[in-house]
Structures are given as C-alpha cells and as structure tokens.
C-alpha cells in the first residue's frame, strides 16, 4: 500500500506540468485530467475492496498485476525504441558535424 501512495503522490505533483508541457493543455484542462485520474483511483479502490472481500485479496492482486503487464510491456518497448532513436539521431549529428 505504501508504494501505491508514494506513486500517486509523485504523479499528482508531476502530471499537471507534464500535460501542459507535452500536450499544450491549459492549466484548467490539465487539472481536469488530474481530477479524473484521482476519481478513477478512488473508484478502483472501492470496487477492488468489494471484489477482494468477495474473492480474496490474493486473487485481486494477481489479476491487477497480470492485467497491467501487457500495457507495461508495450510502454517499456516504446520507451526503449524512442531512446534508440534518440541515440541514432545524436550519432548522425556528431558524424555530420565531424
């Protein structure tokens, strides 16, 4: 539970600025995105608590881990691809300026 709270607290302080910088949203629009994230987290906690009481905490944890794994895998591949693309473009610039 501590890691989830730590993750949420860090995301709260970063998400608004990220949305403004990356997507060009206004401050109000980025705060609406943050609000939607926090509301969905609260709804997920309520639903997850009820399902955990009915079926058991271990099953809910495993389903949440296995359910988010494909998305996490795709995001990590995209980050690695972008990093390789960045390195390749930096090498091209160095060769061109040499």
Spell out the blueprint of helices and strands:
Layout: H1 2-23, H2 27-55, H3 57-97
Helix pairs in contact: 1-2, 2-3
Helical stretch tally = 3
* Structural class category: mainly alpha
Tally of structural domains: 2
Strand content: under 5%
- Got a strand count? 0
Radius of gyration: 19 Å
What would you note in describing this structure?
This protein has 98 residues and is mostly helical. It has two domains: 55 residues; 31 residues. Helix content is 94%, strand content 0%. It contains three helices and no strands. Helix 1 packs antiparallel against helix 2.
Give a brief description.
Helices cover 94% and strands 0% of the residues. It is mainly alpha-helical.
Brief descriptors of the model:
98 residues, 0% strand, 2 domains, 3 helices, mainly alpha
């Amino acid at each position: 539970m501590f890691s989830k709270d730590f993750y949420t607290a860090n995301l709260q302080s970063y998400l608004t600025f990220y949305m403004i910088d990356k997507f060009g949203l206004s401050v109000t629009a980025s705060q609406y995105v943050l609000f939607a994230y926090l509301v969905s987290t609260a709804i997920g906690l309520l639903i997850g608590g009820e399902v955990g009481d009915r079926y058991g905490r271990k099953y809910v944890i495993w389903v949440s881990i296995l359910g988010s794994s494909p998305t996490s895998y795709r995001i990590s591949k995209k980050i690695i691809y972008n990093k390789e693309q960045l390195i390749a473009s930096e090498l091209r610039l160095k060769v061109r300026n040499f």
